[in-house]
Amino acid sequence: MTLDSARGFASLAVHAGQDPDTATGAVIPPVHFSTTYAQDGIGGLRQGYEYGRSGNPTRTALQLQLAAIEGGAHAFSFASGLAAEDTLLRAALEPGDEVLLGDDVYGGTHRLLSRVLGPWGVRLRVVDMSDPDAVRAAVAARPPRLLWVETPSNPLLRITDISGLARIGHDAGALVVVDNTFATPALQQPLSLGADVVVHSTTKYLGGHSDVVGGALVLNDDALAERIAFLQYAVGAVSGPLDAWLTTRGIKTLAVRMQRHSENGAAIAAFLEGNERVARGYYPGLESHPGHELAARQMSGFGGIVSVALESREAARRFAESTRLFTLAESLGGVESLVNYPDAMTHASVRGTEAAVPVEIVRLSVGIEDAADLLADIEQALAR
């Protein structure tokens, strides 16, 4: 099937890579569980399939879908977001190369760079990526090989100017990578803004139902894509066929889910901003957010993540443990609402570093439930 008639994001999310099964006409392509494929003579591969690590039709379908929705030429599906990050970093870096990283990022990314790749000779510097002058000064002082951007960032929801940082990075010969997990391509498309590579934890919004772990890379550079493809094949951190199928299913509803996540997130953020028990709210959809105008320019919506600062560590922990509809749990981006205390949960590994999260912060992943029920739950938790 050609995609000539599927140009809008929602249409691409539903149809890209999703041709009806040629044998039966099934509208939903089957899940291909086979680990190996019959050859028509030695080396006579059917559509290039040989062995499950090197290729799988279900994974191929997902990768076509991922490339289409991010506007990229190449996409790779991995067993987890960190597997995707690790493969990219090893494809792009050599010992002695340096990564310039934001000071508000997912704890696992910082841990991967500092504790796994650091001993192999990869250097790490940290800067506030939402401050272009600070980034420009850091790049001028010592050009890095790679700029790693999260926008909105995790968990303080800082907004970084992707186009501006792409210019700064490219002028210095650096590769610019954007983790687009929070925004998703439904709200933000970094490749069109000048980024070189987009990273996803597909576990989050792309899968969207808290039932599958995965990661993805999307890019346009042919040479870098070839190196990534080799490493993925050689090391084997591929997504399994059922995981790929579940992620594909989630992506098909991404546009409508992100609309509802954004609506509910805005309602929660507005309520928290006006609450006397709240020291500060973090949500780029609020006009009071320092990155609001930039977010409005480079995003089509503001997403479903809301963070909040309470008066103390103790108050933050009590609040996180007092919700009823919001479930206290790791992760984010599912249809159900979750509450997380980053200092002791998702970001515990960066305690004592430049990327440490303030102890009074709570992060909310606002789901697609009725907004009135979510607001009532927040209200009773604050009261407790």
Question: Would you summarize the structure shown here?
Answer:
This protein has 384 residues and is an alpha/beta fold. The chain is built from twelve helices and twelve strands.
The structure class reads alpha/beta
Strand order of the largest sheet: 1-7-6-5-4-2-3
Beta-strand residue percentage: 5-15%
For the biggest sheet, the summary is:
7 strands, mixed
Radius of gyration: 21 Å
Helical element count? 12
Helix content: 25-40%
How far apart, in Å, are the first and last alpha carbons? Answer: 56 Å
Number of strands: 12
H/E element sequence = HHEHEHEHEHEEEHHHEHEHEEEH
Overview of the structural elements:
- The protein is an alpha/beta fold and 384 residues long.
- It has twelve helices and twelve strands.
- The protein has helices spanning 9-15, 57-70, 81-92, 107-117, 132-141, 162-171, 222-235, 241-252, 254-273, 292-298, 313-320, 371-383; strands spanning 74-78, 98-102, 123-127, 146-150, 175-179, 197-201, 215-219, 280-282, 305-309, 327-328, 338-340, 361-365.
- A seven-stranded mixed beta sheet has the order 1-7-6-5-4-2-3, sandwiched between helices.
- Helix 5 runs parallel beside helix 6 (162-171).
- The longest helix has 20 residues, at 254-273.
- The termini are far apart.
